[in-house]
Design brief:
Length: 215
Amino acid sequence: MNAADDGFRAFGHTGAPEHPLAPEHARVDGRPRIPPGQGVTRGFPVLHVGSVPTCDLADWTLSVTGAVEHPLRLDGEAFRREVWREQRSDFHCVTGWSRLDCRWRGVPLSDLIRKAAPARGAAWVLLLDGRGYGADVPLEVALDKDTLLAAELDGVPLEPRHGGPCRVVIPDLYGWKSTKWLREVRILERPASGYWEARGYHPRGDPWLEERVVG
């Protein structure tokens, strides 16, 4: 079994989604709402690497490090003082399911990155949970208006099993890019393969191009 197949097993894929015939209405950008190979689920499957940590937002910290002029470190209280916003977006898992209309609330990642002031030449962001898991994305993806540091889901604090107290949400990439239990945002000049990318997953992860694995 190759690394990519092992990754799908580790994610906990258990077969077809609950609703394999998904709605076909288009997005604003003209793409179908449901990417190819995906089916809709009403639940929210729990998929992650390792055990589920337990930490309240009051005991949580986040750092913005790397190629920045003003490194940041926020505790939960400082995070709450940031400007929060709510967004509705769909979530697409590489294992084949999509959950529609997730109602997330939190802080735009762009707000913190701009406060840290990326250095000249900064082009990538590595999103780390502090326990060995990370995913890298281009800086422009991290600065996108829909990339959120979410602390609430559907009107309640984010449960630990879904990445609480704070996780990344990147609606236009497969879910493995949306790091759970975020602890560090590291700004880089060059790409640095994250956990799944180093195991054969596609470096970009665009669901509409089915960029699940390399090759």
